[in-house]
Amino acid sequence: MPANPRVFLDTSALFAGIWSPEGGARLLLKLGESGAIQLVINRQVLLEIENTLRAKAPSHIGALVLLLDRSQIEIAAQDRANSQLPNNGSLTPAMPGCWPLFLRARLITLLRWIASTF
After folding, report:
1. Would you state the pLDDT for residue 84?
2. Exposure of 49 in the CB half-sphere (CA atoms within 13 A)
């Protein structure tokens, strides 16, 4: 049986999953909780999400801790996370301003894979 796919969450995806009880980002957290995928963040994302929550939604810090635990999120070493990324550690799409489309396409691909596997 193949290993579960590893999905790297950036700060905005993690924030969206904490902020909204519905939507694609929360679905990813639920898939991590069920063991269908392995969620991965690095230390930079952990620091950024903590700072963001302290500034914008301090009441959600408890939710962060709970969701990190329940979703079984792996906190990867920075070097290891960067070494597994394409294009010398960059996930940046070729054209500026196309992040929403790029991320939506990645999420759709992942969700299709999950639907076809389970």
Report:
1. 45
2. 26
Is it true that domain 6-89 has CATH number 1.10.10.10?
no
The contacts found for 14-18 with CB under 8 angstroms, 24 or more apart, are: 14/41, 14/45, 14/49, 15/49, 15/52, 15/53, 17/67, 18/49, 18/53, 18/60, 18/63, 18/64, 18/67
Structure confidence at residue 72 (pLDDT): 85
Residue type, 56: K
Q: What is the mean pLDDT of each run of 10 residues along the chain (118 residues)?
A: 80 89 88 90 88 88 85 74 42 46 60 68
Q: Report the run of H or E that residue 39 belongs to, with start and end.
A: strand 38-42
